[in-house]
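Chapter review: from sequence to fold.
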Amino acid sequence: MRLRDGALTLTLLDYLRLTERATGTKEGCAEGDCGACTVVLRRSVGGGFVYQPVNACILLAGQADGADVITVEDLADGATLHPVQQAMVEQHGSQCGFCTPGFIMALFALYHAQRDAPLDRAAVNDWIAGNLCRCTGYRPIVDAALASCGGVATDRFATQEAEAARALAAIDGEDDVFAGSDERFFAAPASIPALAALYAKHPDAVLVGGATDVGLWITKQFHELAKIIWLGRVRGLDAIDDVADAITFGATASHEAAIPHLAAIDPDLGELMRRFAGKQIRSVGTIGGNIANGSPIGDTPPALIALGATLALQKGDVVRRIPLEDFFLAYGKQDRTASEFVRAVQVPKLKVDERFRCYKISKRFDQDISAVMGAFKVTLAGARIAAARIAFGGMAATPKRALAAEAALAGADLGDAGSWQAALAALADDFSPITDQRASADYRRDVVRALLRKALMETAGAATHRTRVVGIRETADAAAS
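The token string follows.
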């Protein structure tokens, strides 16, 4: 059909409230932070269903293509509340009620989640990290989750899944979707060749993965986007190929899907991704998008750079590969030609003689943008550092390696903190940070030194208990001073 003016950038929240009159879903922040607008997209995946919590305020309405959109109005079965709703009532989990629909929908997704471990308070806290409440403590909300979630789903959504699968299959074909005209359109190609051809014809189009960044262009910056290519229907672009020595993430692989693979490389990566936004953002935000937007404060690029990742870029049917750090040229500028798109990123796994650490520094623990993100990989030759890869976000106009510090670490004794000092000092040659609302330049300079020292101390402690004692004590004293 021909889209109305403005419909290209219609958010799912505005569609629900203004067209469907489903006003139970609220707008709080309009930037994907507070979770008041949370709804659930139910999709048929691999013969089963995925119940995906999303922020409707920054998700484009077109991104709900092929999904069953479930809002808070849908949960009750006549006069009978859903188990999650009933538990919130019984546990007194609501005060003013503005944020309550978003919490209800996040817990509804948890109610239907497949879990490998028993549900506990920490797991619930992680799940609702993307939902904020201003007027009550979170304890009764967590109590409601523990009372209603964690078992086998038995609500009417579970019992009617076969019927829902047939309905979704009837509307979710494998054809390309194109709505509008050559001058103004929303398109959703179904294959990589179709994407390449469409982008070659319209190099001025905006590529949208999860819209966790582009959505803010619309809701906060009021951009008028004339041509949108949504990547969510491109078959194979979300593939994850996990082999013996590397993992290849397709550009639209979600952060949520990537977590177990990255955590298997090193637990620090799992912890980094646990703190990467909230469940609603991780479920739609993509690995490729976090790279392609070129942000100097993105969390995944420094970690992947330190690991030695390579990026695959495609234009037409030609694919070229470059080291990930070479993709970032300057603020807002990447090594990507017209019609070229991010196809995949390949991340090497750690070798036997390699050690990795990464740390996210932010004002708020959950769901906050990093002031500094540091990642470190060292290659050991016995007790000495044979080579190092160090990358930081938040320290320059792009994610950047600390080349001077890397060179100064070569040959350092892991058990002798004194041999690290040249590398710590060299960080001043690698970076000239700015002061902004997240941190001062002086704070950033101090933090990167502390993080490098911390990484080396932890690596030394893991490597040997015998040679580390004096060095760690000296380093701890230096850090305290």
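Two observations follow directly from the output. Residues 1-5, 465-481 have pLDDT under 50 and may be disordered. The chain is about 35% helix and 20% strand.
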